[in-house]
From TrEMBL:
Name by which UniProt lists this protein: MARVEL domain-containing protein
Pfam families: MARVEL (PF01284)
Alphabetic keyword roster: Membrane, Transmembrane, Transmembrane helix
Subcellular location: Membrane
GO CC term, one of those recorded: membrane
PROSITE patterns assigned: MARVEL
Domain MARVEL residues, every copy: 36-189
Transmembrane region(s): 82-102, 114-143, 163-183
Origin: domain of life: Eukaryota
Membrane topology of this protein: Multi-pass membrane protein
Length: 192
């Protein structure tokens, strides 16, 4: 006779499928912290990501028609510092956002230690944003002295406005990181 294939029995498949689906759903719900997106920390991190991205984009628009090496050395130094601070901050903020969104902060070491790291990073980066924005602001002031702000040339106006916007957004980033640092400091203090 023919042996029946027990794996093809209809009562086994639905149970295995429903077990796998419910386990996957439970695992997925435990790994993604969607409430982080609605918490003040999550919204602040999204704001930081937007501000850092906008500052880098505005700075890129400032020199898009001119090679950085054609700028005076002091402008190149300030522009390079601005890029280093804001791109490094953006990469680190993305890492932190993903870490909190997927609860990696709870899986890697102590959550309190991770929160303390975020506090230190945010306060340090607030200072870096303020310093690099202030130094890049000197570039904007020199452009203003060169009458870029009143130029009839639309390309020069475009570049000046984006340099000015980058500085303003840079100082807004300073405020966002400062608030983030204070918020995470309070979280660190409350978990002692």
């Amino acid at each position: 006779g023919v042996r029946p294939n027990h794996l093809n029995q209809s009562w086994i498949r639905p149970r295995i499928g429903s077990y796998c689906n419910s386990t996957f759903r439970k695992l997925r719900m435990e790994t993604v912290n969607l409430m982080y997106l609605l918490d003040p920390e999550g919204m602040l991190k999204i704001l930081e990501l937007a501000l850092l991205s906008a500052a880098v984009a505005c700075t890129a628009q400032y020199h898009k028609d001119a090679d950085i090496s054609n700028l005076p050395e002091w402008q190149t130094n300030r522009l390079s510092l601005f890029y280093v601070v804001f791109i490094t901050g953006l990469v680190t903020a993305i890492f932190l956002f993903v870490s909190f969104l997927f609860n990696l902060d709870k899986r890697c070491g102590s959550p309190k230690g991770f929160t303390f790291f975020v506090t230190l990073f945010s306060l340090t980066w607030a200072v870096f944003c303020a310093v690099s924005s202030g130094l890049f602001g000197e570039v904007v002031l020199s452009l203003q002295e060169d009458k870029w702000d009143t130029s009839k040339n639309e390309r020069i106006q475009w570049r000046y406005q984006h340099a000015q916007a980058a500085v303003i957004i840079g100082f807004l980033s300073f405020l966002a990181f400062l608030v983030d640092g204070i918020l995470h400091y309070r979280i660190t203090r409350s978990t002692q």
